[in-house]
């Protein structure tokens, strides 16, 4: 039916009100559901556009939820400057603690992270930001920081640094992903550095005769004596009773039979390898 044509009944008569054929099958709907003809319109009149609909003003963007965390390591350091900075950053919830960097578990940080994760899980479309005064307040080293950043990235929680060279908001799923990638690289570099320094220290100590680890229960003199007794046919349990530990927490005690067996077996393996 062309635009502007009157709505007609099945008998061809012009209708006085709009209706839909599907309502005919339900009498109650046929009587109640109807669209009345506007005053400026009627059967047979050409359609004319009505007044433009006023556009509703756009709703202001939702403000992100900021959760602040502040920390200092000793009782002599002050937290107030961090708390003031977090308040200026519009952090509605702030967690703070004075705790040594040697302590691995930080209860207030765990509370802040749990709140951020819970809010993000309940409202995935809501921006949730964990704000700190500076990066070193979050972790003791790069490896620990990378573990934390991985958790933030998995939860979709943003990280905001209020001071320092990396000041700003870092979105783990947006442009800030590069920031988290840098943290990962830094953590790997630090792990490699620690490993290299450890190996260098072990090599240096070995060159001085210190091979690390726990002190031997059976030293070289005891081993020589035990081998001599074994060559005479003395059973290992009897050999253990004739040996005395010289150092350590078991000083002046006899070594266990298993320790003697192990020391003799290792000595035999070394002798076979050298021959």
TrEMBL record:
List the Gene3D superfamilies hit by this protein, alphabetically. Resolvase, N-terminal catalytic domain
SUPFAM superfamilies from the xrefs?
Resolvase-like (SSF53041)
Q: Does the keyword DNA-binding apply?
A: yes
Q: Which CDD domains match?
A: SR_ResInv
Pfam families on file: Phage_zn_bind_8, Resolvase
Tell me the InterPro entries matching this sequence: Phage_Znf_bind_put (IPR056911), Resolv_N (IPR006119), Resolvase-like_N_sf (IPR036162), SSR_resolvase (IPR050639)
Answer whether the UniProt record assigns the keyword Transcription regulation to this protein: no
Resolvase/invertase-type recombinase catalytic domain location? 65-209
| PROSITE patterns found in the cross-reference section | RECOMBINASES_3
**Keywords assigned:** DNA recombination, DNA-binding
Identify the species of origin: Streptomyces albipurpureus
Q: What is this protein called in UniProt? A: Recombinase family protein
């Amino acid at each position: 039916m062309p635009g502007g044509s009157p709505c007609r009944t099945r008998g061809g008569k012009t209708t006085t009100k709009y209706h839909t054929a599907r309502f005919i099958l339900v009498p109650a709907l046929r009587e109640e559901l109807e669209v009345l003809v506007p005053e400026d319109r009627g059967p047979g009149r050409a359609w004319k556009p009505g007044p433009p609909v006023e556009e509703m003003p756009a709703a202001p963007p939702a403000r992100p939820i900021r959760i602040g965390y502040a920390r200092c390591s000793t009782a002599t350091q002050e937290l107030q400057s961090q708390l003031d900075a977090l308040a200026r950053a519009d952090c509605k919830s702030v967690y703070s603690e004075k705790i040594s960097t040697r302590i691995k578990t930080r209860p207030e940080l765990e509370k802040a992270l749990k709140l951020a994760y819970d809010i993000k899980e309940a409202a995935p479309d809501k921006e949730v930001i964990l704000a700190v005064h500076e990066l070193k307040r979050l972790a003791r080293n790069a490896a620990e920081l990378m573990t934390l950043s991985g958790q933030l990235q998995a939860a979709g929680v943003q990280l905001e640094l209020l001071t320092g060279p990396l000041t700003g908001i870092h979105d783990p799923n947006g442009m800030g992903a590069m920031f988290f990638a840098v943290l990962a690289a830094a953590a790997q570099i630090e792990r490699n550095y620690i490993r290299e320094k450890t190996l260098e220290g072990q090599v240096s100590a070995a060159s001085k005769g210190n091979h690390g680890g726990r002190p031997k229960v059976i030293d070289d003199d005891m081993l020589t004596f035990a081998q001599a007794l074994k060559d005479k046919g003395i059973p290992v349990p009897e050999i253990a009773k004739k040996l005395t530990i010289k150092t350590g927490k078991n000083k002046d005690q006899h070594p266990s039979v298993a320790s003697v067996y192990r020391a003799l077996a290792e000595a035999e393996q070394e002798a076979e390898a050298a021959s």
